């Protein structure tokens, strides 16, 4: 009888498990009669090799073999093959089960039903062979016993009982572990496979950075145990779980393949504390499933190209101002992400193909591809190599070795883009509860602030709050904001009708903002994006303009490998940025454009090529684009034919500086509100400076004031300007 308490001592647990395993084997020998075994089971043994690639099966037992029980040659329905292996001392050999072949057709029919879903079994094939270790029997043991109990044919039932006796004796240690350890919620590394049958719903614990402390659910489709290969176990002692999940690939929902590794551990471990936990051992499983189901519905809602905000880690522990400061703007876009998720049909989630690699329907002694290799192999003889799969450009995504078709960089009409009617939601599949439960906790997207692709946690994605305050507080001369807003609103309303008479040419609005540094050019573009509730994409091309002599050797090497007459990483990045901004219906900001749109000359062919490429992109750009410069006179003349509106910003006057000081010093409220008086504001406004310097001064003064848990004072401003600007006020 199993113990009432879990075993703690590792050595003691193993000794008890071994004794229980021996008892199980003896019990099976008593239930399976010797007469039935001799009549139904034929034993084959590993004999002397005839070639290097195959095992040679013989009827006679090899000499010098340790025999646990009487094994004699018998007849036909079950063929048992046994390997001959050396013992630890090397003086004797031992017998180990290799496989059991089922030759009785009615028995095969019963087993096809028992192991339905495993290893793509086909009932019409007459071969059915189970390889050791017989894990499929352990995983489907109750189903196997039920099939034996309800079998009406005495002949078939007797054969199945003999088969059960054989495999249960081989699985005796696993059954002992199940009774003594798993029943108490603990497991050893060696026997991890017993709790992860193919088809099992499992839960992977969340990452450390998870905001909601929720992990992911998967369906196990295959378990790769390291003990099956001793050499591999020495190199990589870990289990590998091959799983199925659900994800959005940018066009549709589908099944994904995920691999989870479980590292080795000593002794026993509580199953509920493992990195991956079968749902039946998961504590508070119902509540976790309910929360993950709600997250899956949120994931389904967010699928598409969507403009969102992303909360920082531990946002609940931050103040409101800190949370706003660290919240980023993101574009959810799985379709255009470089790490795009490739999915298969959703039917693979609802009825997944399960693999054990231990059930085969091909003859055990079949010759390998290329034929047998003789024992004395010629080293100069060419070895057989597996043919390299040929990619089929016309194959769909869900075909093996299918190459995804090339995607155009620019899409004129993306139904999933932000701003389209209902965001393309009518094209999403309706998912059932299991598919929603298996949806990933992360989504692919692009961080607009850090300008990089990343994975974003679904539970930290929130809607972007509409905020017109930045545009309203923008300090510009009279008429400037009305003119800019008129152009923007007309472009958003009329679309392609706004631009060229040539179809497909332009359709966007390009504005050039020129003026001295710190007069509000960049803030204009940022506040317009906030006003129209659109993402702001900033393009940085300064890193593309390296010294021509440094870049030419690399370019020559790259062009020599390319079939295209013009092959450049710069061109690719430039095209991708314009393309993504167009798909996202974003406001594209190119700050300080004079550094890469300078007048073309014969002395710089590298710059000429970049300017020409940039002019072409401007001509066909369909959305909003802001160019800023403080050196308008150096721009290439051809740029003006692509610009719809040029705005020159004058230097800040007294009233403008006063408004800017009040804007930045009035950002804090409550106990951190500024105490600067109107007279002190007039003093600050009298100092000739620009908006960027005012912003930096107030930011530094705010940090000094927060150190003492108070608002900004005039004295703080004086100290900062004295230290950083060298001014005495």
Automatic annotation (TrEMBL):
SUPFAM superfamilies in the cross-refs: P-loop containing nucleoside triphosphate hydrolases
Domain of life of the native organism: Eukaryota
Residue ranges constituting the AAA+ ATPase domain according to the UniProt record: 507-653
InterPro entries: AAA+_ATPase, ATPase_AAA_core, DUF7025, P-loop_NTPase
Spans annotated as Disordered: 362-425, 548-571
CDD domains referenced in this protein's UniProt entry, alphabetically: RecA-like_protease
Protein name: Nucleotidase
Lineage, opening ranks: Eukaryota, Fungi, Dikarya, Ascomycota, Pezizomycotina
């Amino acid at each position: 009888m199993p113990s009432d308490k879990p075993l703690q001592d590792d050595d003691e647990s193993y000794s008890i498990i071994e004794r229980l395993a021996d008892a199980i084997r003896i019990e099976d020998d008593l239930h399976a009669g010797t007469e039935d075994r001799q009549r139904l089971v034929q034993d084959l043994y590993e004999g002397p090799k005839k070639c290097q690639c195959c095992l040679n099966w013989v009827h006679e037992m090899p000499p010098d073999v340790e025999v646990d029980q009487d094994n004699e040659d018998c007849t036909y329905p079950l063929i048992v093959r046994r390997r001959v292996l050396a013992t630890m001392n090397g003086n004797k050999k031992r017998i180990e089960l290799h496989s059991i072949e089922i030759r009785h057709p009615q028995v095969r029919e019963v087993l096809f039903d028992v192991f339905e879903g495993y290893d793509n079994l086909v009932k019409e094939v007459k071969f059915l062979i189970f390889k050791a270790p017989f894990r499929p029997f352990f995983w489907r043991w109750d189903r196997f016993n039920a099939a034996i109990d309800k079998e009406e044919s005495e002949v078939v039932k007797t054969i199945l009982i003999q088969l059960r006796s054989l495999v249960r004796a081989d699985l005796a240690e696993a059954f002992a572990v199940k009774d003594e350890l798993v029943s108490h919620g603990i497991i050893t590394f060696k026997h991890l496979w017993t709790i992860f049958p193919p088809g099992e719903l499992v839960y992977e614990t969340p990452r450390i950075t998870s905001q909601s402390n929720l992990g992911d659910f998967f369906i196990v489709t295959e378990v790769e145990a390291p003990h099956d290969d001793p050499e591999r176990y020495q190199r990589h002692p870990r289990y590998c779980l091959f799983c199925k999940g659900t994800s959005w690939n940018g066009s549709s929902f589908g099944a994904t393949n995920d691999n989870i590794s479980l590292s080795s551990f000593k002794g026993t471990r509580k199953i509920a504390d493992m990195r991956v936990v079968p749902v039946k051992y998961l504590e508070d499983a119902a509540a976790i499933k309910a929360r993950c189901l709600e997250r899956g519905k949120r994931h389904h809602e967010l699928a598409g190209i969507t403009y969102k905000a992303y909360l920082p880690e531990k946002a609940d522990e931050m103040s409101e101002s800190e949370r706003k400061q660290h919240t980023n703007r993101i574009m959810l876009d799985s379709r255009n992400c470089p790490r795009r998720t490739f999915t298969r049909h959703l039917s693979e989630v609802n009825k997944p193909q399960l693999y054990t690699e231990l059930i085969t329907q091909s003859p055990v002694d079949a010759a390998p591809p290329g034929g047998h290799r003789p024992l004395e192999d010629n080293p100069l003889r060419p070895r057989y190599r597996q043919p390299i799969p040929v990619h089929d450009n016309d194959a769909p995504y869900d075909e093996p070795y299918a190459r995804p078709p090339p995607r155009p960089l620019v899409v004129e009409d993306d139904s999933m883009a932000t701003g389209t009617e209902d965001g393309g939601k009518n094209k999403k599949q309706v998912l059932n509860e299991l598919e929603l439960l298996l949806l990933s906790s992360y989504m692919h997207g692009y961080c607009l602030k850090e300008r990089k692709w990343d994975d974003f946690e679904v539970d930290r994605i929130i809607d972007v709050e509409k905020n017109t305050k930045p545009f309203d507080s923008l300090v510009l001369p009279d008429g400037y904001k009305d003119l800019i807003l008129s152009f923007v609103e007309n472009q958003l309303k009329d679309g392609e009708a706004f631009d060229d008479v040539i179809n497909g040419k332009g359709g966007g609005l390009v504005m050039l903002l020129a003026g001295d540094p710190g007069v509000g050019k960049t803030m204009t573009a940022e506040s317009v994006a906030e006003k129209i509730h659109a993402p702001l994409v900033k393009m940085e091309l300064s890193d593309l303009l390296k010294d021509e002599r440094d870049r030419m050797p690399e370019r020559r090497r790259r062009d020599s490998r390319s079939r295209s007459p013009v092959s450049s990483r710069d061109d690719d990045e430039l095209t991708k940025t314009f393309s993504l901004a167009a798909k996202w219906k974003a406001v594209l900001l190119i700050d300080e454009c004079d550094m890469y749109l300078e007048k073309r000359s014969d002395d710089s062919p590298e710059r000429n090529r970049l300017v020409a490429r940039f002019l072409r992109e401007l001509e066909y750009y369909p959305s909003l684009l802001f160019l800023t410069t403080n050196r308008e006179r150096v721009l290439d003349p051809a740029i003006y034919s692509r610009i719809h509106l040029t705005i020159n910003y004058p230097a800040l006057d007294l009233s403008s500086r006063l408004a800017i000081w009040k804007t930045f010093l009035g950002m804090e409220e409550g106990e951190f509100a500024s105490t600067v008086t109107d007279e002190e504001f007039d003093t600050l406004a009298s100092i000739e400076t620009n908006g960027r310097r005012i912003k930096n001064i107030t930011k530094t003064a705010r940090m000094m004031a927060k150190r003492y848990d108070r608002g900004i004072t005039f004295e703080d401003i004086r100290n900062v300007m004295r230290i950083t600007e060298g001014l005495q006020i």
